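In the previous chapter we treated chains in isolation. Here, by contrast, the input contains two separate entities that must be folded as one system, with a combined length of 272 residues.
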Amino acid sequence: MRDWLARLVDRIRGAAGVDRSDAAIVRRLRARGVRIGEDCRIYSTEFSTEPYLVTIGDGVGIAGGVKFLTHDGAARLRKARRPGIQLLGPISIGADSFIGENAILLPGTSIGRDCIVVAGSVVRGPIPDNSLVMGNPAKVVGRASLFLDRLERNPNALDTFGMPEATRRATILRHFGLENPS
Amino acid sequence: MTAHTAESVRAILAAALAETGRTPPKGAEGEQTLTGDLGIDSLDFVSLIQLLEERLDIKLSDDAAAAVVTVDDLLALCLAAVAAATGGPA
């Protein structure tokens, strides 16, 4: 009941334009029972009906639309034999990992530390530390550390985070040669 | 460990590059850049390195691999790693 109420309050706050910052989301998720480490940035509120089965380590980033599925709804197909059946599974994410936009984490997913889950991936089972994971079903395609080393060398990797918005916008437009939109 | 020659390393690299789906049908040229010319992005690149490490039975350091610019750079890196792993030139 407490979780139901917390989610309802979440929705009302969201609809009313109340604080939807990542810090506020973390506060509300903790209130719903999600175990969240320090220094996390979380933009998803899709923590299913058992948020208390989700554990998130320090320094984790979770993009918008990520779904944490802590139960398998297909179990309901056995309701004639077992009316109360639910198949449940905890989900954990190790420290300093990043989960990309709209990824889906299935029951029992256990992601190691320093991992990157690519946007839209559907993840299940154990994922070793320092893995880059993508696809449906998601597979480990290589080392996250190599991805980050390569990303840093990308000419479009700009140091614009934290800039005042006007400066940031001008810097980005200049970089892409789009200063004078027609 | 399979003994690799320079030719077998070249062939494995060519096959791995083809599997990225980013190379032209006639194959990549040595001086072509992976990112600019072939359009191999960071995700493709990580998969490519993983494939090469598995097929050549080598381990490339993140620093050295991330610094690769051209197809020839990658070939040289693989040849050096194979040589180091087998104690002689590939």
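Chain A has four helices and 16 strands. The first strand of chain A starts at residue 35 and ends at 36. Compare these points with the single-chain example from earlier in the chapter.
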